[in-house]
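Hi all, long-time lurker, first post. I run a small reading group and we've been trying to get comfortable going from sequence to structure in the token notation. Rather than ask abstract questions, I figured I'd post a concrete chain and ask someone more experienced to write out its structure so we can walk through it together at our next meeting. Sequence below, copied exactly:
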Amino acid sequence: MWASLLFAGLLFGIGKVTGDTVKAVSFVFTDIDGRSVRLADYQGKWVLVSFWAPWCPLCKVQIPTLNTLNQRPDFRVIGIALEYGSDEASIQDAVSANHLHFDANVAGGTRRAPNSAMLQVGPVDFFPTSYLYDPTGEIVMFIPGQLRMNRVLAFMDGWYAEHGGARRPILAARTDRLAAFLRQHYGERGSQAFAEWKRLLDSSLNATPRQKLARVNDFFNQHIQPGDDLKIWGRSDYWTTPGELLGVGRGDSVDLAIAKYFSLLALNVPPEQLRLVYVQARGKTSGVHMVLAWYEASGRDPLLLDVASLLPAAQRPDLRPVFSFNSLGVYDETAQAVAAGGSGRLAIWEDTLRRARAEGFE
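-- Answer (accepted) --
Happy to help. Here is the structure in token form:
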């Protein structure tokens, strides 16, 4: 049951460019805001050029991953839309509707046009297709299909090892935004809560995945007191952001699971390995509860981060999974995707994602 909640998705190709690098054209684009976008301006940073189409479902699925990569200080994402028809203004609407928080978005026309944007980068046979440039401006990876963050980060680590040393891990969140939010809304209490949370993340960046899970689970279980939404927020079902939970110091199982989810994303745990899971205690008709599940690999039972424990799902026979979701989509108990690239039936989750992004999370 639990293993089936991990949606396998589609396989994709990912590889290092033959001969280590391909000499890149020093591209020059104009984005949808009229800004010049040049490869030469990104020296010293990783640049991912991702080709997409508004009608492409896999393109939408990978948007949260690209948004998270673009948040890194050493990484920039450029999205180039193709095959959208003659109305370039439609790309502005598509970028807004699909929440593309990239460094630049370009309306690239059609692949067959003599001035197609892809001619400055490389072939695009299907969507999505991405090209990764290293900090020296060379193309070092061709990614046909859906991009996986852990594969890209592993490649970057290997590149740094070959070029004089390992990369220092960087938090995948803009923590300055969270600090400002907590200081503005919760004063000294908020600043103190941020400092404690930031120490947790800084001390866990180099930890193993299981160590990250245990530390994040323990932190929120120990720092957050049980609380009822109606008493705290004056409404019966309110899903807090990490900043709101840290600020008030009280919350229910839903709030804890959400805060753990975003904290692990900030520690570079891939979103496809994490699921927020609605569960129900067996033998009871009420008392729906939420846990965070971590899947080390497809087909395996997950570890469950709960309000008082970190245990394999097999050791929690008291819980029956109902459905699960993350920032990539919503899934039912049979692993069928209810909605990819968004929350579908969970408007409350969409609202929580929007508010969390304002705090610096993706």
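A couple of things your group might point at:
The radius of gyration is 21 Å.
Confidence is low (pLDDT under 50) at residues 6-21, 340-344.
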